[in-house]
Amino acid sequence: MTSTDSPDCLFCKIVAGDIPADVVASSDTAIAFRDIAPKAPVHVLVVPKEHYPDVSAFAATDTEGLAGVIGLADGVASELADGQYRLIFNTGPKAGQSVFHVHAHLLAGGELPGFA
Ligand code: 5GP
Ligand code: ZN
After folding, report:
1. Which ligand is nearest the CA of 9, by number?
2. Where is the HIT domain positioned along the sequence (predicted)?
3. Catalytic: 51?
4. Which atom in ligand 1 lies closest to the alpha carbon of residue 100?
């Protein structure tokens, strides 16, 4: 556990290896693992190892870390799909955020549905 871990946070526990996950890639500062309920042929969550509640707090504090998350997602999209992808940061409950450790949803593979 590092000083930035949040003890009750699901994704901190995945980062620490205390809860198993299908990890597809990692870097010094971020890991990527498959979403437990995939919404696309490739649906991977990319999270910084440090705990931030959402992308707003993350971007305000660690732009390098944010670039690292995006870079890791980009690499995974090339490894597991054809390099074309959608990245979504749900931010706040009204936007659908349910886990309050910032995560990028990487959606790829096949044709993704358009937004309404
Ligand atoms: P949010 O709703 O916060 O944007 O996204 C949270 C995501 O975490 C959801 O897509 C959900 O399926 C995924 N999720 C929830 N619990 C687990 C888990 O224990 N393991 C993994 N791999 N994904 C999870
Ligand atoms: Zn956390």
Report:
1. 2
2. 10-116
3. no
4. 3
Long-range (24+ apart) CB contacts under 8 A made by 80-85 are 80/24, 80/42, 80/44, 80/108, 80/109, 81/41, 81/42, 81/108, 81/109, 82/108, 82/109, 84/108, 85/42
Ligand having the closest approach to the CA of 12:
2
Domains by residue range for the chain, with CATH? 10-108 (3.30.428.10)
pLDDT band (50, 70, 90) for residue 3: very low
pTM: 0.95
pLDDT digits (tens, 9 = 90+) for 34-76: 999 999 999 999 999 999 999 999 999 999 999 999 999 999 9
